[in-house]
Amino acid sequence: MKNKKCKVCSNSYAPTQPLQRVCGVSCAIEYNHRVDANRAEKGRKKALRQRKVALRPKGEWLRLTQVEFNKYIRARDADLPCISCGRHHTGQYHAGHYRTTAAQPALRFNEINCHKQCMPCNSHKSGNITEYRINLAKKVGDDLVAWLEIDHPRTGAWTIPELQALRKYYREATKLLSASA
Which pLDDT tens digit goes with each residue over 17-48? Predict the structure, then answer.
């Protein structure tokens, strides 16, 4: 075997075993201490990350889940024009809700209620709701639009485990859509 450089003292040595990383016993002891310290540090960092995740408020989980849902909607409708104006353009696209999340929180993560919408329609024209409804009826049918327009009471607020599961689902679904595109 050719000479290697010791991971501890940087001296050159002739290894006696294929996976040997250090030149001698004293360097091996020092190397093991470093490895143990690195493992302990990684364990502390992992525990800290887990504590931070556990301390996240529900509002943050809602925001993170909404981000993943919106990415999914934009990926799902990537080849389609804006639901409101029917244009393809190079500007920014949003995931526009037909029934807003303030008006119908129960429909926040409903895929029928949300479609790709250009930024001018969603932001400057307050959703361009008249054109949105016309094109939504063409896309999903009058029955589903009528269903969206009725009141949908939610028996309780989203729980953190529900939001975590939804976030994971939409993250994976977006990856699948991106891989197939």
Answer: 889 999 999 999 999 999 999 999 999 999 99
Task: Write b or e for each residue in 84-93: b if 16 or more Cβ atoms lie within 10 A of its Cβ, otherwise e.
Answer: bbeeeeeeeb
Residue whose C-alpha is closest to residue 117's, from 77, 145, 90, 147: 77
Tell me the C-alpha distance between 168 and 68, whole Å: 8
Written as one string, the DSSP assignment of 138-150 is: HHH-HHHHHHHHS
pLDDT given for residue 157 in this prediction: 83
pTM (predicted TM-score): 0.74
Spatial contact of 105 and 112, defined as CB atoms under 8 Å apart: no
- pLDDT (0 to 100) of residue 95: 95
CA–CA separation, 81 and 117 (whole Å): 8
Q: How far apart are the first and last CA of the chain?
A: 48
pLDDT bracket for residue 112 (50, 70, 90): very high
Q: Where does residue 47 rank: exposed (0-12), middle (13-18), buried (19+ CB within 10 A)?
A: exposed
How crowded is residue 42: how many other Cβ atoms within 10 Å of its Cβ?
10
Q: Within a 13 Å sphere around the CA of 109, how many CA atoms are in the beta-carbon half?
A: 19
Q: Which two tokens stand for residue 128?
A: 């361009």
**What is the model's pLDDT at position 53?**
84
CA nearest to 86, candidates 51, 116, 46, 61: 116
